[in-house]
Structures are given as structure tokens and as C-alpha cells.
Write the C-alpha cells for this entry.
Amino acid sequence: MPTLHSRTPTLLAALFLGLPLSTPAWPAVFDARELGVQGGGVTDDTAALQKALNSAQGQTLFLPAGKYRVDGRLVLPAQTVLRGESSGLASLSGTVLLSTVGKGREDGPGCLVMQPNSTLERIAIQYPDQVAEGEPVRYPYAITAAPSTRIESVYLHSPYQGINLDFCHLNQVRDVWGEPLRVGINADHCSDISRIENVHFWPYYTNSKPALRQWVQDHGVAFQFGRSDWQYCSGVFSYGYHTGFRFYASTPVSGRPGGNGGVTNGQFSGVGADRCVIGIDAESLFAIGVCFTNSLFAPFGASEGSRAVWLRPQNTGNLTLTSCAFWAVPSALFQVDAGSLNLTACNIHEWALTLKDAACFAAHGGRLAVHGCTFNQAGKLAILDGDTTQVIFSGNMGTGTSVVHSALGGRLVATGNLPPLQIRDGGTAGPTTAPCPGPSVALNDRPRGLCFLLL
């Protein structure tokens, strides 16, 4: 069968190295062009590509640089590597799949469906029928992964949805660039460790398309997590999405191993969400908790209603933020309606840039602990109310007098802060509301509604 490299030691090399002549051959690397794949970007290559993938099952299929039109679904066989040629990050001059499969719908198989233990490397996926303006064309996920799969050095140019890690235990995703328009990466029903590293979602496609760019700002979610046990994320970044990181409670899937629904626990290190409406949207977290360290958030994607962090009323889990930085916030930074939020050694640069009377913290339920943080502005620090809310401010430093409006009584502890916090009775200061702009329907088809911040 044609190969790019047989990788079998020659007789001379075997003798020189003292190897037995029966040394097993290394896995072959097959060249897709030699197996009948034409390329050119005009004729549909789906059937030829699938035949080549099947021929290379258990080994590596090399797809040279070029454009390959894919009007149907490609299945990457188990234990098989599909490897293209990459000319750099966020580049369409290497190996590019032009996908049209699933046009007009969000569910079902998309361009690439991976089987267990398969690998995808150095491939770009582009959607030539995606719109230039207005509401985008809907497509299924560009890549549907599987358990123990690896996705590396991939460019997602203009998909409606990027990578689906549903039921993908022990997966690894790294060095992914692009701009999925609705959902970047979804992880759910992962009962063993999932790793996502060095992902960069930026408006590569919509930067020169104002209406479509606004649609992504109003509706897009860069990273979302349902049930994921021991989720690891590092070095991931998004710009210009409605939500940077969304955590939701997923439903069970009957008849599938590991189909228990639930929520996420894990750690996120060195991540960022820039020009978002909501940085971390905690609809629901695991009680063990989710931890963010050394991370950056600039939620200025809406003139009012932006939040760096929002723990919603249905949440019962815990969120810990350590050594994180926050700035460029039109209104309130943090809203806690339920669950637990713990901030340690964070730098809060500014808030209330547009809605001038907004507090940095609004806690209407749950628990809030703020330790050893730095505030680079003074003014209205917090509004605290609720029948069971508990709050601690300790060891924080600011630039001037900070005021806390509290209806908590002894359920508020403020100690060791410089300057000392001014505590005023009453958790409300005027019955105004600030809506949280966002999609009318969440990604799991539940109403998002409005959030109300009493000021």
C-alpha cells in the first residue's frame, strides 16, 4: 500500500545498530493523495477521504497542504492519526477542510467524528457557506471527540460550534485557535480527567463584520462545562464572547456508561476572558468546587449589567479565585445569589465605569469571603442582603473609604481592612435594577431571563 514513509529500518541500518532483522516495522504514514484524495476545494472529497482513513486505520494518514471540500461526515477510526500540514497558528494556508455538512442545524454529526484513541493534528476547518453579516448559519460541532482522543494544533476558522467533548473521558485538547460563533468548547459527561490547554478564541472571522461580531458578543460562549470530573484548563483565552466560562448542570443520558449528569469540579490556571459580558457564569458548580488562579477578566461587553462573576440562584457549589485581576467593568463585578465565592489575593482595579452607583459586590444569598485583596478605587464596595447570606471581608487594602451597605447584622464580619470599611445598615440603596444582557435561551434550552441587582 502506498506510504509517505515506511519507517522500516533498512537492512544496513539494522546490521549497523546490531538490531535483529525481525525488528517490527514502525507504524506507517500513508499519504492521502496517493490513496485517491484529490483536493482543490471544489469537488467533494468526503468519500475519498473516508476510504483513505479506513485504509490507514491504526496508523497515520497524512493530508498534504491544500483545500479539501467535505460535504459529508468524516469518521476518524480508533487508534488512527489524521495529520495535516500547518503553516502557523490561525492560518488557512496549510491543510484546510471546507465543511458544509449539517448546514442549518445544530445537532447531529459534524465535519469530524473521532473514535476512541484517535488523534487530530495540524488541520484547519473552514465553513465557506458561513454568512458575512447578521445571524450566523447554524452547524453541528466541527469536531466531535471521543474517550482518550487528542486534538492538537487545530484552527477553527468560522464554525457555529467548535469542539464537543461530551463523553470524552481522558481527552486532551491543546493549541487550538479560531472563532466558533456560538459555542467554542463543550465538556460534559466526562467521568475522568479532561485537559484543555492553550486555546485562543478571538474574532478572526467577525472582526470586519460588525453585525455578526455583535451577534457573537450577545450570544457566544467560549467554554462551557456540564459534568466534568477533575477538569483541567490552562492558558486558554477568549475575546468578544457573551460568556467566557459557563458552568451548567447537565441531565443524565440513559443507556450509556458514564451518562450520569451533573456539574464540574476542576482547576483553571492562567486563563482569561476579555471583552465579555459575563466572565464566569456559575449556573451550577460541584460542591467540591472550581478554582481559578492567576487569571484575568475584563467584562466590558455591555454598557450595563456586565459581571466578572455571577453565582446564580440555582447554584449550590463553590468557586475560589486566587491571584486574579479584574478591570474595565461597566457595573458590578461580582454577584452572589447562592453557593460560595472565595477571593484571595486578587487585584480589583475598577468597576461601575458606566453605572456609577453600582457596587463591586452584590450578595443576595450564599457565602462570600474576600481576603487579602487590593482595590484600586474607593466608593460603594458591597450591597449585602438575604436571610441566610454570610460575608467576610478581611485583610484587604484600598485607596480610600469603601462603603458596605449591609442588612446582615452579625452575618457580616469585616476586620483588618485598610482603610477600615464603613458599614451602613440596609442592603438596598434604591430599587433600581441592572439587567444582565444575554441570550433569551441558554444552550441547554433553559430560559436565562434577567438578573436583578438592587442598588
